[in-house]
């Protein structure tokens, strides 16, 4: 920085004052040359025509491009501890940018029209759709503004766009004060209903395109308005093509409505499968005779009900039963079997008849996906939660959306140049990166691999959502709080037990008064816990010999190998054990032969003192090292699977067996060195495994489930009551069993469903 008078160097330390102009500033710096002493005004950025800082214009452009308003811009700046910009400054700059955007958008549309004419050889096909700046419902659309677009089939670019507005904030301001409205650029251009905007914009754009030498021959659109009939009244030669996505949506909507009457439609994948069958028939008949489509539609209902004679007659290529009749199954229908409900059959035939009546328009479907994408771009620049409709701002944001759709993010540099701003180095770099990324995405999305990947992702997401809904029960529904008295609605079904990424194991062991599962506990030990417990019944001689524990009933004292030890009542000891476990985040209990002995004894005593529920809440489950050892070690290598023998054979640790504390330390060495890495999800058992398993006695007796299936269900803590809940939750039994990785044969599935139906 140098003085404008004497060319002496200026210093920031000599600033006398600062004048902020938006995001720019003017620094007044005194020249320290005693002869000169000039007060210099130094601008902090590029300016044009006085104090019009370029950075303010770019800030206004960024506000439009990112869909923010002046308030959001200042919130961003002040959060970064930067000074806010006066709203009037932003609005002035925005008006300047808006004018440039509108001119650039018109030029872009004109160029797109010429390109479309050349690529289509004059046979112009466009897709049309509209959008509103306020969210509406099926029976209430009252947005003050709406926009429409016509996009060329060959170029995929916006050929023409239009905006309708019922409001102008300047008019509203003066009218509210009963003042005369001054001359201004009024944004209001529509007095009709919000729904009436769509056909009016379509007619207006069609006229503009005709005048520009780009007359429409075919228009793709949905059936949500009277646009086509009104358009054809003005342009009789225009042909209409229905939108494929809206056609599919219409069919599935009817099926969902029928699901309120037919329970079989509520089962997972049924509606999506029936919808696919309809679309298979429709797409197979594209560009063919309407009679061919009618014949294809007639195949659907018999196919769904197990009659494939018409499938063979019409030679449809989507029926797997024609390729392999003996092994083909309905993978998306309950039990792999055809539908049987006769009343549903009648309703499906009604849908078929409705589609046959529209066969002429269905044999040549179009697409409005490009318009949906354009509407999304508009929503990013004019979000529906913000109101831009009563000012000129919306026109500029709509124009910016057109430019982004037609030219990508490169439009930013184009508009910058048109208003005398530098293109911007970082702007160009980012635009280039986005263009390259978009090109790669477009190529991937158009590929078979990309389409299949999206479909599989959608299916996987849908399955996950359905599974969660079966497990959780009703969580969100109209007036669901009024039905809270029905606990079954909100009862959660346990999730499949899986090992966490970094599991926390707690090694434990108990010594008892006998060998039965109803025995009292004499000693309970864990990693850093060792408690001796006063028995409530006599200790068997065999148990005393094995454990070395004796109890003197006269003195109420306990002795271990002749040495007195401190002991506690059983309830106090169990409370200490539960408190110890609670301090560890979701631990997994580990014991040797725990499944057959330690866990049953422990849970029996915990249940007696009503402590089992509390322990279950804090424990993920338990692991039995005996079962793991039998799986990974051959008997010929270890001779037997007793803990004492395994420790001796597989480790160098020496210890005294049948003392819970010693057993825990020895098992910890064995588990850490040889077993921990071998633990699988299947080794993890619910803490209430035995209690849950006992609830399946009736099912086992009636041979509705195999013993292995019952073990798998009980391992995850799933009771017959949970199976019944899953069945009642939109027939989610199959979903639950699949989530638990339990594959039942058709025989067992049918028997189980019959049992659950009888229990209702």
Automatic annotation (TrEMBL):
Matching entries from Pfam families are given as: DNA_pol_B_exo1, Mutator
Protein's UniProt name: Exonuclease domain-containing protein
> What GO biological process terms does the UniProt entry carry, in alphabetical order?
DNA catabolic process
Report the residue ranges that make up the Exonuclease domain in this protein.
Answer: 504-680
Q: Which organism is it from?
A: Pinctada imbricata
Q: Which domain of life is it from?
A: Eukaryota
Q: Which InterPro entries match?
A: DNA-dir_DNA_pol_B_exonuc (IPR006133), Mutator_transp_dom (IPR049012), Ribonucl_H (IPR013520), RNaseH-like_sf (IPR012337), RNaseH_sf (IPR036397), TREX1/2 (IPR040393)
Query: Which one of the record's GO molecular function terms can you name?
Result: metal ion binding
Q: Does the keyword GTP-binding apply?
A: no
Alphabetically ordered keywords of this record: Exonuclease, Hydrolase, Magnesium, Metal-binding, Nuclease
* Xref: SUPFAM superfamilies: Ribonuclease H-like
Q: Which GO terms describe its cellular component?
A: cytoplasm
């Amino acid at each position: 920085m140098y003085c404008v008078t004497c060319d002496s160097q200026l210093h920031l330390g000599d600033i006398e004052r600062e004048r902020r102009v938006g995001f720019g500033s003017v620094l007044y710096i005194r020249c320290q040359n005693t002869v000169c002493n000039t007060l210099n005004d130094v601008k902090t950025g590029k300016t044009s025509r006085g104090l019009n800082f370029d950075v303010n214009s770019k800030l206004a452009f960024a506000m439009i491009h990112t869909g923010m308003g002046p308030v959001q811009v200042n919130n961003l700046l002040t959060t970064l501890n930067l000074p806010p910009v006066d709203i009037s400054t932003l609005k002035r700059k925005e008006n300047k940018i808006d004018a440039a955007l509108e001119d650039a958008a018109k030029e872009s549309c004109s160029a797109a029209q010429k390109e479309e004419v050349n690529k289509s050889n004059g046979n112009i096909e466009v897709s049309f759709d509209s959008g509103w700046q306020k969210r509406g419902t099926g029976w209430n659309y009252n947005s003050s503004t709406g926009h429409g677009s016509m996009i060329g089939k060959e170029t995929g670019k916006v050929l023409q766009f239009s905006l309708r507005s019922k409001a102008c904030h300047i008019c509203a301001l003066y009218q509210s004060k009963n003042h005369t409205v001054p001359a201004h650029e009024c944004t209001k251009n529509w007095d009709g209903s919000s729904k009436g905007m769509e056909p009016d914009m379509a007619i207006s754009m069609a006229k503009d395109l005709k005048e520009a030498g780009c007359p429409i021959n075919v228009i793709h659109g949905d059936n949500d308005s009277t646009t086509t009939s009104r358009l054809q009244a003005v342009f009789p030669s225009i042909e209409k093509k229905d939108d494929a996505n809206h056609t599919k949506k219409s069919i599935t909507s009817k099926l969902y409505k029928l699901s309120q009457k037919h329970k079989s439609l509520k089962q997972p994948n049924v509606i999506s499968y029936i919808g696919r069958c309809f679309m298979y028939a429709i797409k197979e008949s594209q560009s063919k005779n309407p009679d061919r489509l009618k014949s294809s539609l007639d195949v659907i209902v018999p196919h769904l009900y197990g009659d494939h004679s018409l499938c063979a007659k019409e030679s449809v290529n989507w029926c797997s039963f024609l390729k392999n009749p003996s092994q083909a199954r309905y993978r998306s229908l309950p039990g792999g079997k055809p539908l049987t409900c006769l009343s549903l059959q009648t309703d499906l035939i009604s849908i078929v008849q409705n589609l046959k009546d529209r066969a002429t328009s269905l044999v040549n479907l179009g697409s409005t996906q490009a318009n949906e994408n354009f509407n999304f771009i508009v929503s990013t620049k004019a979000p529906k939660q913000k109101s831009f409709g009563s000012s000129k701002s919306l026109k500029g944001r709509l124009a910016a959306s057109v430019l982004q759709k037609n030219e990508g993010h490169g439009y930013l540099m184009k508009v910058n140049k048109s208003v005398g701003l530098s293109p911007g180095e970082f702007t160009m770099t980012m635009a280039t990166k986005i263009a390259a990324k978009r090109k790669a995405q477009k190529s991937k999305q158009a590929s078979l691999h990309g389409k299949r990947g999206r479909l599989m992702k959608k299916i996987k997401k849908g399955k996950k959502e359905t599974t969660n809904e079966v497990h959780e029960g009703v969580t969100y529904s109209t007036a669901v709080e009024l039905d809270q008295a029905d606990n079954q609605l909100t009862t959660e079904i346990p999730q499949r037990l899986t090992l966490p990424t970094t599991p926390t194991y707690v090694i434990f062991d108990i010594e008892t008064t006998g060998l039965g599962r109803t025995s009292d506990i004499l000693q309970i030990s864990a990693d850093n816990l060792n408690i001796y417990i006063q028995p409530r019944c006599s200790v068997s001689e065999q148990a005393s010999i094995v454990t070395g524990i004796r109890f003197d009933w006269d003195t109420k004292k306990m002795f271990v190998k002749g040495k007195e030890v401190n002991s506690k009542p059983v309830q106090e000891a169990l409370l200490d054990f539960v408190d110890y476990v609670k301090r560890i985040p979701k631990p997994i209990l580990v014991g040797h032969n725990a499944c057959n002995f330690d866990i049953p004894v422990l849970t029996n005593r915990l249940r007696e003192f009503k402590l089992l529920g509390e322990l279950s809440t804090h424990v993920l489950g338990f692991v039995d090292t005996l079962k793991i050892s039998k799986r990974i070690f051959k008997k010929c290598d270890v001779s037997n699977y007793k803990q004492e023998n395994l420790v001796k054979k597989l480790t160098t640790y020496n210890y005294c067996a049948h003392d819970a504390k010693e057993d825990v330390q020895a098992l910890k060495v064995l588990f850490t060195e040889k077993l921990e890495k071998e633990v699988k999800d299947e080794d993890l058992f619910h803490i209430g495994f035995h209690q849950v398993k006992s609830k399946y006695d009736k099912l086992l007796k009636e041979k509705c489930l195999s013993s292995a299936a019952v073990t798998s269900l009980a391992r995850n803590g799933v009771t017959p009551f949970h199976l019944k809940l899953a069945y009642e939750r939109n027939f989610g039994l199959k979903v639950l069993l699949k989530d638990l990785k339990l594959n039942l044969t058709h025989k067992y599935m049918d028997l189980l469903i019959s049992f659950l139906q009888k229990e209702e």
